[in-house]
Amino acid sequence: MDCTDCGRPLAVNPKRKGTRCQRCAARVHATSPEKRQRCSQAMKRRFDDPVFRMKQIRSMATGLKRALDADPSIRDRMREHGRRVGALHKGNLTRPAGSPQRQKAARAQSEFYMGWCPLEYRDGYRRMVRIDGIKAADARRMTEELIEVDRSRYLATAVLPQAARGAGA
After folding, report:
1. Does residue 2 come out as left (phi exceeding 0), alpha (psi in the -120 to 50 range) or beta?
2. Tell me: the pLDDT tens digits for 82-95?
3. How high is the pLDDT of residue 139?
4. What pLDDT is recorded for position 169?
5. How far apart are CA 14 and CA 51, in angstroms?
6. Which domain does 37 fall in, by range?
7. Degrees, nearest 5: CA angle 25-31-33
8. Does residue 15 fall inside a structural domain?
9. What pLDDT sits at residue 17?
10. Residue 142: closest CA among 155, 41, 150
């Protein structure tokens, strides 16, 4: 029997389920969006388990420590790599604080990450995330609900509720 994809002869194997060689079967699975989605969901479920996550973190730290102990030059290579990558991302950080370039970059970054949120709701969203400790996804959902409530209230009364909230009412 030959592989249906590449034509390579296949050894007789009673456990074989398909008609592809191992390499072609792996390629099909790796490029299948459905299979990739299932694998991704399975890994996310596994990493949701705090015990599994801690075992993985511990395993990675142990492996890194073992590699660094075996070859101290790895530490120097990692340090040099970090310097090179860090130098690529400095950009406007080399400018003094409060400079027009950094202000422009901060505005662009805020707009990129918070473009979904109207300006008058951004302070409330930031307060929820930074001070109240609410997860960003939950804070976004709550802010979007507040926007919808305010919009329906405005349509009913023609009064902007967020303006009254901002004035301390």
Report:
1. beta
2. 888 777 766 666 77
3. 95
4. 40
5. 38
6. 32-88
7. 120
8. no
9. 84
10. 150
Closest CA to 93 of 85, 83, 102: 102
- The number of domains in the chain is 2
Contact between 147 and 121 (Cβ < 8 Å):
yes
Do 6 and 21 touch, CB atoms closer than 8 A? yes
Collect the ranges in the chain with pLDDT lower than 70. Answer: 89-93, 163-169
- Could you tell me if 124 and 77 lie in one domain? no
Q: Which token pair is 65?
A: 């420590």
So what's the pLDDT on residue 166? 58
| pLDDT computed for residue 153 by the predictor | 87
93-125 core/surface letters (b: 16 or more CB in 10 A; e: else): eeeeeeeeebeeeeeeeeeeebeebeeebeebb
Domain boundary among 63, 88, 113: 88
* pTM score, whole prediction: 0.41
Residues 6+ apart with CB under 8 A from 147: 118, 121
- Cα–Cα distance, 133 to 5 (Å, whole number): 53
DSSP 8-class letter at 159: -
pLDDT (tens digit per residue) in 48-76: 999 999 999 999 999 999 999 999 899 99
Q: From CA 10, how far away is CA 31, in angstroms rounded?
A: 22
CB 123 within 8 A of CB 113: no
Out of 61, 88, 115, pick the residue that ends a domain.
88
